[in-house]
Specification:
The protein is an alpha+beta fold and 74 residues long. It is built from 4 helices and 2 strands. The chain has a two-stranded parallel sheet with strand order 1-2. α3 packs across α4. The chain is elongated and about 40 Å long.
Length: 74
């Protein structure tokens, strides 16, 4: 177990910018390397005529790993 994984086990994490490129990478890496993270909250704002829900749905469609991890939310 890596030190990053050990640190986040049992923790709650808030991520801003999760729909951007680096945010997507961060969320995926966090969930993959720390399966025992307690909760991950993402802060999403409406942008470019898209609602928050639409932006999250687009984020989840971006990668297969996101679909597998979050398929119950879409």
């Amino acid at each position: 177990m890596s030190s990053v994984s050990a640190y986040y086990n049992g923790k709650t994490v808030l991520i801003t910018g999760a729909t951007g490129f680096m945010g997507k990478v961060l969320v995926e890496k966090l969930l993959r390397s720390s399966p025992d993270v307690k909760a991950v909250y993402i802060l999403v704002r409406p942008k470019a005529g898209q609602s928050m829900q639409e932006r999250v749905a687009n984020m989840l469609k971006c990668k297969v790993s996101f679909y597998i991890l979050f398929s119950d939310l879409v």
